[in-house]
Amino acid sequence: IKYLGTSLVASSPGGTDGVFLDKPWMVVDIPRGNAGTCRVTTTDVDPLTQQTRTVTQTIPAGPAYVAYTAFSTDAQGERSDIYFTSSTNCGRTWSNPTRVNRREDRVNQGVTLAVDPRNGDVLIAWRQFAPTAVPKQPPAPQPERKQQRDAQQQPPARCGRPPVRRDARMHVLQ
Predict the structure, then answer these.
(1) pTM for the whole structure
(2) CA 19, CA 36: separation in Å to the nearest integer?
(3) φ, ψ for residue 151, nearest 5 deg
(4) pLDDT tens-digit readout, 89-125
(5) Cβ(12)–Cβ(70) under 8 Å?
């Protein structure tokens, strides 16, 4: 295994006026159908001659997908959005990041990705928080409710609902 370098997926100047990019998640699919190839070139030391040599390999190119959270501030205050991008050339270039949560959903975080091994569909899910005011004091402990909650199976948290993009074959976990 050898480090081959990086490519920029997204960037922000950060600071008080910038956007904070957080918790990227990446998944790579196997090459399918008419997948292209990528040429990987690196240097290595020949174990027999101890001479430096150039090694080039051509490998099948499976698509790579990245999702992340972008924390920002707008006229209504703080918000966090989920963005999705993809690469079909081994990460050399990336598509323009697309916001996948609804604009009215202001607090989103904890994105995760998966690829369906049967057909290459991309599954994306994240945690969406309801906007609430911060309580002035913490609520009193209520062990009865906690015991009831632990005894009952809770439904899964609501997942975001991005638009279906046919080119990225993106679907939603429910």
Answers:
(1) 0.69
(2) 34
(3) -75, -25
(4) 888 899 999 999 999 899 998 999 999 999 999 999 9
(5) yes
Cα distance between residue 40 and residue 4, in whole Å: 8
**Which residues lie across from 52 on neighbouring strands?**
45
117 vs 22: CA distance, rounded Å? 27
Alpha-carbon span 99 to 93, nearest angstrom: 18
Pairing mode, strands 98-99 and 107-115: unpaired
Helix (H) or strand (E) holding 172: strand 170-172
Count of other CB atoms within 10 angstroms of residue 13: 7
The answer to whether the CB of 45 falls within 8 A of the CB of 53 is: yes
Q: What is the pLDDT of residues 49-90, one digit of tens each?
A: 999 999 899 989 899 999 999 999 888 888 999 999 999 988
Q: Give the whole-angstrom CA distance, residue 170 versus residue 115.
A: 9
